[in-house]
Request: fold
Amino acid sequence: MASLELKKIIKDFGETRVIHGVDLQVDDGEFVVFVGPSGCGKSTLLRLICGLEHASSGDIFLEGERVNDVRAADRGLAMVFQSYALYPHMTVYQNMAFGLENMGLPKAAIKAKVGEAAKLLRLDTLLERKPTQLSGGQRQRVAIGRAIVREPKIFLFDEPLSNLDAELRVSMRSEITGLHRRLGSTMIYVTHDQVEAMTMADKIVVLRQGRIEQVGSPLELYNRPANRFVAGFIGSPQMNFLPVRSEAGSRLATTFGTAFSLDIESGLAEGKTYMLGVRPEHLSLEESPGALSLALKVVEVEQLGGHCLIYGMLPDGNTRITLHCEGQQSTQIGDAVVVYAPPANCHLFEKDGEERTIR
Amino acid sequence: MKLVSYLTATRGRSRLHWTDWLTYAYLCVGLFLMFGPVLWLVASSFKTEAALSEFPPTLLPYGQKSVMVPGEEKPKPVFRVKLPDGTMKELPEIRRIGLMATYVDPAKPEEPIRVNIKDRQPVREFRLATENYSDLMRKLDFGKYLWNSVFITIVATVITLLFNSMAAFALSKYQFRGRSGVFLFIIATLMVPPAIVLVPNFLVVTELGLLNSLWAVIWPAVATPTGVFMLRQYMLTIPDELLEAARMDHASEWQIYWRIMLPLSAPALAVLAIFSIMWRWNDFLWPLIVLSKAEKFTLQLALNAFQGDLITQWNYLLAMTVITLLPVTVVFAFLQKHITQGIASAGVK
Reply:
């Protein structure tokens, strides 16, 4: 168990800069998820933390101590790799014991520790098997077991569930969070899947192109995204965006003629274009007072039983809007529907630069 | 049963398709071409010296029948003799003086029969001249040569595997300046014909004082570009994550090499081991140059020494050739699956 602090971390691969000055504080016992699209530098950041890569500049502090020049093995962290990286020629037991053997622990102690971890992960009957004789989920658990036996200060997970099928992914997800509750260790988890991030994290770190876009709890990110990127990345289906123009009296008008007023503390400059964001689940087929009405031509309907997703095109002809409705709807492709966006649930973003959130 | 159905598989269901005829003809010719000489060699190695120089030659080893005669120390050759009374009888020959030979009938040993040698034919029977082999063991310092060959083969193979895998590990898994340069340099040595480096190698070995030592054969042979290349290509397919996981697991670089890389490269190592065994065992030219003392000869050199300027004892030469062939044949027969597998994986991937 330990805290971690990154200060102005920069990483260059040759000429390309992949991490642009990251500052981050991870507290003791936290479950932190790094999330972002592929190539955003989240795995690189994890490898910098564990010591498999060296930072070009900046400092890494572990429990308050600078560890930039400490070897990966001596940092006391454990990593679960995306491909599990189990040694294929060793049995499950040998895989889990390898690290302890290298540390020179006595045989009896190794046996006890491995046995304990195996019991925790329900691997005790599989100890003599080779990794190739295991299913995906079992391999995953062995990889986690290999990390547990070393009693690391921080667990690092690099997209550990991406090789599993959807069903197994859900159950492994809760298994990992359960483990976190039981062990109480600090864990850092990398994923590109925002659902994993939302469901598992105490704290989510959203990354894009080597920069931190926002750090916060899942609901903070959902309710108050810092910019349009975070707003679009967090939440599924994705938030709807449509361009609006500010008019006199804090009114906002769409490009196709409807308008509504949005309460903004700082006020808006008149005649400027903004991006209006509203989540599919906040759109409604029923009119509410002051809501923005959007006339849609339905292009696709997905019936999921418990709820349905309706995709429609705005009159401007190139903005697609997704609507999440509870229950089952009789809407057909080609129908014209009007949906309403209540102002309380609307977000407004700058149209240029960092597309920061105004509301 | 499986083998039978495999060997008798045909394309035609009931009758033989014409491609079947073609296939079998091709396979038979191939079998004859490949195995004919080997079988001829093995059969001939069991012939006596006399039988070898016979014309027309026989395929199978025949020898003259001989029996023990009471009162004589050595077995006597048996001849089919035309007796003076005109009957034919198989009798052992006691002695022969000029054109007359003396025979004795074991039933009536007190009556020797003298017959002109025109009237007798040697009786021949199928007989393996195993003395070719047993004499070889006794007369020659065969054990010494065998030991030299085995020592060179095993030691050189072990060192080859060790050195080449270490080089391949560094070249496949470490990033360092000039890595591809070093690798290209190693590969480039493949283009240098061995004959060209013969003299420089000899000079080096002489300067090191290794002449007439088995190590003179071992050391120049252990660093093979083929081996480094093959192992490197294989090791490239081992994921880096395994090494990183091991590094996180407190493994030293040596432990990563010894406990992760080596076991995982086993298929490629097996191929290289087989190649190395065949190369070292069959090596002739280099040992011939650096080993001039008879007690340091390898089997191949001893074999060569049999071929004198004036006389060649063909029966011994052939027997020894068979013995020399055996180990490689056995190695190949048992490991040929690994060979094809390894070549495929090292080459294609």
About this structure: Chain A touches chain B through 21 residues (CB under 8 Å). Residues 221 and 234 of chain A are 7 Å apart (CA to CA). The longest helix of chain A spans residues 166-183. Chain A has two domains: 4-226, 240-350.
